[in-house]
Amino acid sequence: MLPEDVLLKAQAELLDYESTGMSIMEMSHRSAYFDEVIESAKMRLRRLMSIPSTHEVMFLHGGATTQFYALAEQFNSSGVAAYINTGQWSSKAIKAASTYGGGVDVIGTTEDENFCRAPTQDELTQQTDGYNYVHYTPNETIGGVRFPYVPDVSSPLVADFSSSILSEYIDVSKFDFIYAGAQKNIGPAGIVVVIASKAFLTRSKKAKNPIFDYCAQVKGDSRVNTPSTYSIYLANLVFEWLESQGGVAHISMLNQQKAKILYSLIDSSDYYHSPIDRDSRSWMNVPFQLHDNNLNKKFLEEADAARLYNLAGHRSVGGMRASIYNAMPLDGVIALTEFMTEFARQNG
Ligand SMILES: *Cc1c(COP(=O)(O)O)cnc(C)c1O
Protein backbone atom coordinates (compact mmCIF):
# COMPACT_ATOMS: atom_id res chain seq x y z
CA MET A 1 0.00 0.00 0.00
CA LEU A 2 0.92 3.63 -0.42
CA PRO A 3 -0.55 6.19 1.98
CA GLU A 4 -3.58 7.88 0.43
CA ASP A 5 -2.12 11.33 1.22
CA VAL A 6 0.90 10.44 -0.89
CA LEU A 7 -1.19 9.28 -3.84
CA LEU A 8 -3.30 12.43 -3.65
CA LYS A 9 -0.26 14.67 -3.61
CA ALA A 10 1.27 12.78 -6.54
CA GLN A 11 -2.02 13.10 -8.39
CA ALA A 12 -2.23 16.84 -7.75
CA GLU A 13 1.32 17.32 -9.01
CA LEU A 14 1.14 14.84 -11.85
CA LEU A 15 0.60 17.25 -14.74
CA ASP A 16 2.23 20.35 -13.38
CA TYR A 17 5.09 20.04 -10.92
CA GLU A 18 5.68 23.27 -8.98
CA SER A 19 4.11 25.42 -11.71
CA THR A 20 6.61 24.30 -14.31
CA GLY A 21 3.92 23.02 -16.67
CA MET A 22 5.76 19.70 -16.64
CA SER A 23 5.37 16.42 -14.84
CA ILE A 24 8.31 15.32 -12.72
CA MET A 25 8.31 12.26 -15.04
CA GLU A 26 9.10 14.53 -17.97
CA MET A 27 12.05 16.25 -16.34
CA SER A 28 15.70 15.51 -16.77
CA HIS A 29 17.30 13.58 -13.92
CA ARG A 30 19.92 16.34 -13.98
CA SER A 31 17.45 19.21 -13.69
CA ALA A 32 17.49 21.48 -10.66
CA TYR A 33 13.98 20.26 -9.82
CA PHE A 34 15.07 16.67 -9.65
CA ASP A 35 18.24 17.62 -7.76
CA GLU A 36 15.94 18.96 -5.10
CA VAL A 37 13.79 15.81 -5.05
CA ILE A 38 16.70 13.39 -4.60
CA GLU A 39 18.37 15.67 -2.06
CA SER A 40 15.16 15.92 -0.08
CA ALA A 41 14.61 12.13 -0.22
CA LYS A 42 18.12 11.55 1.12
CA MET A 43 17.78 14.14 3.88
CA ARG A 44 14.43 12.84 5.03
CA LEU A 45 15.65 9.23 5.08
CA ARG A 46 18.68 10.34 7.07
CA ARG A 47 16.46 12.08 9.59
CA LEU A 48 13.93 9.25 9.81
CA MET A 49 16.56 6.58 10.41
CA SER A 50 19.12 8.79 12.19
CA ILE A 51 21.71 7.74 9.62
CA PRO A 52 25.11 8.92 10.84
CA SER A 53 27.46 10.93 8.61
CA THR A 54 29.72 7.87 8.49
CA HIS A 55 27.20 6.30 6.10
CA GLU A 56 26.27 7.01 2.48
CA VAL A 57 22.73 6.79 1.10
CA MET A 58 21.97 5.62 -2.44
CA PHE A 59 18.82 5.03 -4.52
CA LEU A 60 19.70 2.36 -7.05
CA HIS A 61 18.21 0.14 -9.74
CA GLY A 62 17.37 -3.50 -9.94
CA GLY A 63 15.66 -4.19 -6.63
CA ALA A 64 16.98 -6.24 -3.76
CA THR A 65 17.84 -9.20 -5.98
CA THR A 66 20.45 -7.16 -7.82
CA GLN A 67 22.01 -6.35 -4.44
CA PHE A 68 22.41 -10.08 -3.70
CA TYR A 69 24.92 -10.16 -6.59
CA ALA A 70 26.35 -6.63 -6.52
CA LEU A 71 27.20 -6.99 -2.84
CA ALA A 72 28.97 -10.30 -3.37
CA GLU A 73 30.77 -9.10 -6.51
CA GLN A 74 32.22 -6.11 -4.69
CA PHE A 75 32.78 -7.47 -1.19
CA ASN A 76 33.20 -11.23 -1.58
CA SER A 77 35.54 -11.43 -4.55
CA SER A 78 38.07 -13.31 -2.45
CA GLY A 79 37.75 -14.78 1.02
CA VAL A 80 34.43 -15.86 2.49
CA ALA A 81 31.20 -14.18 3.59
CA ALA A 82 28.95 -15.48 6.36
CA TYR A 83 25.17 -15.76 6.01
CA ILE A 84 22.35 -16.53 8.40
CA ASN A 85 19.59 -18.50 6.71
CA THR A 86 16.07 -17.85 7.97
CA GLY A 87 14.01 -18.63 4.89
CA GLN A 88 13.47 -17.99 1.24
CA TRP A 89 15.03 -14.58 0.81
CA SER A 90 18.14 -15.43 2.80
CA SER A 91 18.41 -18.66 0.80
CA LYS A 92 18.31 -16.69 -2.43
CA ALA A 93 20.92 -14.27 -1.14
CA ILE A 94 23.13 -17.24 -0.18
CA LYS A 95 22.70 -18.90 -3.55
CA ALA A 96 23.65 -15.66 -5.32
CA ALA A 97 26.72 -15.00 -3.19
CA SER A 98 28.03 -18.56 -3.16
CA THR A 99 29.39 -18.27 -6.70
CA TYR A 100 31.74 -15.40 -5.73
CA GLY A 101 35.18 -15.62 -4.15
CA GLY A 102 35.54 -18.43 -1.65
CA GLY A 103 31.77 -18.69 -1.33
CA VAL A 104 29.78 -18.47 1.87
CA ASP A 105 29.57 -20.07 5.31
CA VAL A 106 26.13 -20.45 6.82
CA ILE A 107 26.65 -19.51 10.46
CA GLY A 108 23.10 -20.05 11.67
CA THR A 109 19.82 -21.46 10.41
CA THR A 110 16.52 -22.90 11.57
CA GLU A 111 15.93 -24.77 8.35
CA ASP A 112 15.43 -28.08 10.21
CA GLU A 113 12.57 -26.45 12.10
CA ASN A 114 10.96 -25.29 8.89
CA PHE A 115 12.11 -21.72 9.55
CA CYS A 116 9.55 -21.25 12.31
CA ARG A 117 11.83 -18.80 14.15
CA ALA A 118 15.09 -16.86 13.94
CA PRO A 119 18.12 -18.56 15.48
CA THR A 120 19.19 -17.08 18.83
CA GLN A 121 22.50 -15.30 19.26
CA ASP A 122 23.81 -18.37 21.14
CA GLU A 123 22.93 -20.64 18.25
CA LEU A 124 25.05 -18.67 15.77
CA THR A 125 28.61 -19.81 15.11
CA GLN A 126 30.58 -18.05 17.84
CA GLN A 127 33.65 -17.31 15.73
CA THR A 128 32.62 -14.59 13.27
CA ASP A 129 35.81 -12.61 12.72
CA GLY A 130 37.66 -12.69 9.42
CA TYR A 131 34.61 -12.80 7.19
CA ASN A 132 34.12 -10.22 4.44
CA TYR A 133 30.75 -9.57 6.05
CA VAL A 134 27.91 -11.28 7.90
CA HIS A 135 24.57 -11.11 6.07
CA TYR A 136 21.11 -11.65 7.50
CA THR A 137 17.47 -10.90 6.72
CA PRO A 138 15.87 -9.05 9.66
CA ASN A 139 12.39 -9.78 8.32
CA GLU A 140 11.70 -12.82 6.14
CA THR A 141 8.80 -11.60 4.06
CA ILE A 142 7.42 -14.95 2.92
CA GLY A 143 7.86 -16.88 6.15
CA GLY A 144 6.93 -13.96 8.40
CA VAL A 145 10.02 -14.35 10.62
CA ARG A 146 11.48 -11.33 12.39
CA PHE A 147 14.81 -11.19 14.21
CA PRO A 148 14.05 -9.92 17.71
CA TYR A 149 17.67 -8.76 18.04
CA VAL A 150 20.56 -7.48 15.94
CA PRO A 151 23.21 -10.19 15.64
CA ASP A 152 26.39 -9.36 17.51
CA VAL A 153 29.21 -10.31 15.16
CA SER A 154 32.89 -9.51 14.63
CA SER A 155 32.79 -8.80 10.89
CA PRO A 156 30.88 -6.05 9.01
CA LEU A 157 27.14 -6.53 9.40
CA VAL A 158 24.98 -6.53 6.23
CA ALA A 159 21.19 -6.71 6.24
CA ASP A 160 18.43 -7.07 3.69
CA PHE A 161 15.78 -4.80 5.17
CA SER A 162 13.47 -4.97 2.14
CA SER A 163 10.31 -5.75 4.08
CA SER A 164 10.92 -3.94 7.35
CA ILE A 165 12.91 -0.78 6.65
CA LEU A 166 11.40 2.16 8.57
CA SER A 167 8.98 -0.09 10.43
CA GLU A 168 10.88 0.04 13.71
CA TYR A 169 13.90 1.81 15.17
CA ILE A 170 17.29 0.42 14.23
CA ASP A 171 20.72 1.65 15.21
CA VAL A 172 22.22 2.19 11.76
CA SER A 173 25.70 2.57 13.21
CA LYS A 174 25.69 -1.19 13.99
CA PHE A 175 25.40 -1.95 10.29
CA ASP A 176 27.94 -1.55 7.52
CA PHE A 177 25.54 -2.16 4.70
CA ILE A 178 21.76 -2.05 4.54
CA TYR A 179 19.66 -2.55 1.43
CA ALA A 180 15.92 -2.52 0.90
CA GLY A 181 13.79 -2.82 -2.22
CA ALA A 182 11.37 0.09 -1.92
CA GLN A 183 8.24 -1.71 -3.08
CA LYS A 184 7.47 -3.44 0.23
CA ASN A 185 7.59 -1.01 3.09
CA ILE A 186 8.34 2.28 1.36
CA GLY A 187 5.83 1.81 -1.42
CA PRO A 188 6.89 2.55 -4.99
CA ALA A 189 8.52 -0.24 -7.02
CA GLY A 190 11.59 0.51 -9.10
CA ILE A 191 14.29 1.48 -6.61
CA VAL A 192 16.38 -0.10 -3.92
CA VAL A 193 17.69 1.95 -1.01
CA VAL A 194 21.31 1.29 -0.05
CA ILE A 195 22.92 2.63 3.12
CA ALA A 196 26.62 1.82 3.38
CA SER A 197 29.37 2.88 5.74
CA LYS A 198 32.26 4.74 4.15
CA ALA A 199 34.70 2.41 5.91
CA PHE A 200 33.06 -0.64 4.36
CA LEU A 201 32.98 0.96 0.90
CA THR A 202 36.76 1.38 0.95
CA ARG A 203 37.02 -2.44 0.99
CA SER A 204 35.02 -2.88 -2.19
CA LYS A 205 36.34 -4.20 -5.46
CA LYS A 206 35.22 -2.23 -8.50
CA ALA A 207 32.16 -3.72 -10.19
CA LYS A 208 32.36 -4.49 -13.90
CA ASN A 209 29.17 -2.57 -14.55
CA PRO A 210 29.43 0.99 -13.21
CA ILE A 211 25.68 1.09 -12.54
CA PHE A 212 26.21 -1.56 -9.87
CA ASP A 213 29.40 -0.02 -8.51
CA TYR A 214 28.71 1.48 -5.08
CA CYS A 215 31.64 3.88 -5.08
CA ALA A 216 30.71 5.15 -8.55
CA GLN A 217 27.11 5.62 -7.43
CA VAL A 218 28.15 7.53 -4.32
CA LYS A 219 30.33 9.75 -6.49
CA GLY A 220 27.57 10.17 -9.06
CA ASP A 221 24.88 10.83 -6.44
CA SER A 222 22.89 7.71 -7.51
CA ARG A 223 22.87 9.03 -11.07
CA VAL A 224 25.60 7.18 -12.92
CA ASN A 225 22.91 6.70 -15.52
CA THR A 226 19.24 7.72 -15.52
CA PRO A 227 17.68 6.56 -12.25
CA SER A 228 14.05 5.70 -11.67
CA THR A 229 13.10 9.32 -11.13
CA TYR A 230 9.41 8.90 -10.46
CA SER A 231 10.02 6.19 -7.86
CA ILE A 232 12.51 8.42 -6.07
CA TYR A 233 9.97 11.24 -6.18
CA LEU A 234 7.31 8.93 -4.66
CA ALA A 235 9.73 7.66 -2.02
CA ASN A 236 10.38 11.27 -1.03
CA LEU A 237 6.64 11.81 -0.59
CA VAL A 238 6.41 8.66 1.54
CA PHE A 239 9.29 9.89 3.71
CA GLU A 240 7.54 13.25 4.05
CA TRP A 241 4.34 11.47 5.08
CA LEU A 242 6.23 9.34 7.63
CA GLU A 243 7.74 12.45 9.19
CA SER A 244 4.30 14.06 9.40
CA GLN A 245 3.05 10.93 11.20
CA GLY A 246 5.66 11.25 13.91
CA GLY A 247 8.47 9.30 12.28
CA VAL A 248 9.67 5.79 13.02
CA ALA A 249 8.88 6.02 16.74
CA HIS A 250 5.21 6.54 16.04
CA ILE A 251 4.87 4.14 13.11
CA SER A 252 6.68 1.44 15.07
CA MET A 253 4.20 1.74 17.93
CA LEU A 254 1.35 1.52 15.45
CA ASN A 255 2.93 -1.48 13.72
CA GLN A 256 3.24 -3.34 17.01
CA GLN A 257 -0.35 -2.55 17.80
CA LYS A 258 -1.52 -3.76 14.38
CA ALA A 259 0.45 -7.00 14.66
CA LYS A 260 -0.76 -7.61 18.21
CA ILE A 261 -4.42 -7.33 17.22
CA LEU A 262 -3.98 -9.84 14.44
CA TYR A 263 -1.87 -12.38 16.38
CA SER A 264 -4.23 -12.12 19.36
CA LEU A 265 -7.14 -13.16 17.20
CA ILE A 266 -5.13 -16.00 15.65
CA ASP A 267 -3.90 -17.26 19.04
CA SER A 268 -7.28 -17.04 20.74
CA SER A 269 -9.06 -19.10 18.09
CA ASP A 270 -8.95 -22.80 17.27
CA TYR A 271 -9.90 -21.86 13.76
CA TYR A 272 -6.68 -20.07 12.81
CA HIS A 273 -3.08 -20.96 13.50
CA SER A 274 0.28 -19.18 13.28
CA PRO A 275 3.24 -21.36 12.27
CA ILE A 276 5.81 -18.93 13.74
CA ASP A 277 7.22 -18.94 17.29
CA ARG A 278 6.02 -15.99 19.34
CA ASP A 279 9.42 -14.35 19.76
CA SER A 280 10.14 -14.34 16.04
CA ARG A 281 6.83 -13.16 14.67
CA SER A 282 7.00 -10.48 12.00
CA TRP A 283 5.23 -7.17 12.52
CA MET A 284 4.97 -6.75 8.76
CA ASN A 285 3.97 -10.12 7.33
CA VAL A 286 1.59 -12.33 9.28
CA PRO A 287 1.24 -15.83 7.86
CA PHE A 288 -1.61 -17.94 9.18
CA GLN A 289 -3.38 -21.19 8.39
CA LEU A 290 -7.05 -22.06 8.48
CA HIS A 291 -7.85 -25.18 10.50
CA ASP A 292 -9.12 -26.73 7.27
CA ASN A 293 -7.11 -25.99 4.12
CA ASN A 294 -10.10 -26.89 1.99
CA LEU A 295 -11.61 -23.57 3.03
CA ASN A 296 -8.70 -21.50 1.70
CA LYS A 297 -10.30 -20.76 -1.65
CA LYS A 298 -13.58 -19.72 -0.05
CA PHE A 299 -11.74 -17.55 2.47
CA LEU A 300 -9.84 -15.74 -0.27
CA GLU A 301 -12.91 -15.23 -2.44
CA GLU A 302 -14.95 -13.80 0.40
CA ALA A 303 -12.03 -11.65 1.56
CA ASP A 304 -11.73 -10.21 -1.95
CA ALA A 305 -15.45 -9.46 -1.97
CA ALA A 306 -14.96 -7.65 1.34
CA ARG A 307 -12.16 -5.62 -0.32
CA LEU A 308 -9.44 -7.35 1.71
CA TYR A 309 -6.81 -8.15 -0.90
CA ASN A 310 -3.56 -10.05 -1.34
CA LEU A 311 -4.13 -12.49 1.50
CA ALA A 312 -2.95 -15.65 -0.23
CA GLY A 313 0.26 -17.02 1.27
CA HIS A 314 3.25 -17.29 -1.04
CA ARG A 315 2.76 -20.15 -3.53
CA SER A 316 5.61 -22.05 -1.87
CA VAL A 317 4.04 -22.13 1.61
CA GLY A 318 0.28 -21.88 0.99
CA GLY A 319 -2.16 -20.76 3.63
CA MET A 320 -2.66 -17.05 4.18
CA ARG A 321 -0.40 -14.08 4.72
CA ALA A 322 -1.47 -10.59 5.70
CA SER A 323 1.09 -7.95 4.84
CA ILE A 324 0.53 -4.99 7.11
CA TYR A 325 3.27 -2.61 6.08
CA ASN A 326 3.62 0.96 7.38
CA ALA A 327 0.94 2.39 5.09
CA MET A 328 -1.70 -0.14 6.23
CA PRO A 329 -3.91 1.75 8.67
CA LEU A 330 -5.10 0.26 11.96
CA ASP A 331 -8.63 0.22 10.52
CA GLY A 332 -7.45 -2.11 7.77
CA VAL A 333 -6.23 -4.65 10.32
CA ILE A 334 -9.41 -4.32 12.36
CA ALA A 335 -11.47 -4.91 9.21
CA LEU A 336 -9.45 -8.08 8.58
CA THR A 337 -9.93 -9.42 12.12
CA GLU A 338 -13.68 -8.73 11.92
CA PHE A 339 -13.83 -10.57 8.63
CA MET A 340 -11.85 -13.51 10.05
CA THR A 341 -14.10 -13.74 13.11
CA GLU A 342 -17.21 -13.72 10.98
CA PHE A 343 -15.78 -16.25 8.52
CA ALA A 344 -14.97 -18.63 11.38
CA ARG A 345 -18.47 -18.23 12.78
CA GLN A 346 -20.16 -18.98 9.46
CA ASN A 347 -17.89 -21.83 8.46
CA GLY A 348 -17.21 -23.42 11.83
C1 LIG B 1 10.93 -8.88 -1.92
C2 LIG B 1 12.20 -9.16 -1.29
C3 LIG B 1 13.39 -9.32 -2.04
C4 LIG B 1 13.44 -9.23 -3.54
O1 LIG B 1 13.09 -7.98 -3.97
P1 LIG B 1 13.21 -7.49 -5.50
O2 LIG B 1 13.25 -6.01 -5.33
O3 LIG B 1 11.98 -7.98 -6.18
O4 LIG B 1 14.45 -8.04 -6.08
C5 LIG B 1 14.55 -9.58 -1.35
N1 LIG B 1 14.58 -9.67 -0.02
C6 LIG B 1 13.46 -9.52 0.73
C7 LIG B 1 13.55 -9.63 2.23
C8 LIG B 1 12.24 -9.25 0.12
O5 LIG B 1 11.14 -9.12 0.86
Plain-language structure description:
The chain is α/β, with parallel strands linked by helices. The protein is built from eleven helices and twelve strands. The longest helix has 22 residues. It starts with a helix and ends with a helix. It binds pyridoxal-5'-phosphate. Pyridoxal-5'-phosphate binds next to helix 3.
Structural class: alpha/beta
N-to-C SSE series?
HHEHEHEEEEEEHEHHHHEEHEH
Mean pLDDT: 97
Low-confidence stretches: none
Please tally the helical runs, counting DSSP H or I stretches of 4 or more residues.
Answer: 11
Secondary structure elements and pairings:
Layout (H helix, E strand, L loop, with lengths): L3 H10 L18 H18 L5 E6 L2 H13 L5 E5 L2 H10 L6 E6 L24 E3 L2 E2 L4 E2 L10 E4 L16 E5 H4 L6 E6 H4 L12 H6 L9 H16 L2 H22 L3 E2 L11 E6 L5 H10 L14 E4 L6 H17 L2
Parallel strand pairs: 2-3, 2-4, 4-7, 7-8
Antiparallel strand pairs: 1-9, 5-6, 8-9, 10-11, 11-12
This protein binds pyridoxal-5'-phosphate.
Pyridoxal-5'-phosphate binds next to helix 3.
Summarize the structure.
With 348 residues, the chain is of the alpha/beta class. The chain has eleven helices and twelve strands.
Features:
348 residues; three-stranded antiparallel β-sheet; single chain; seven-stranded mixed β-sheet; globular; 11 helices; binds pyridoxal-5'-phosphate; alpha/beta; 37% helix
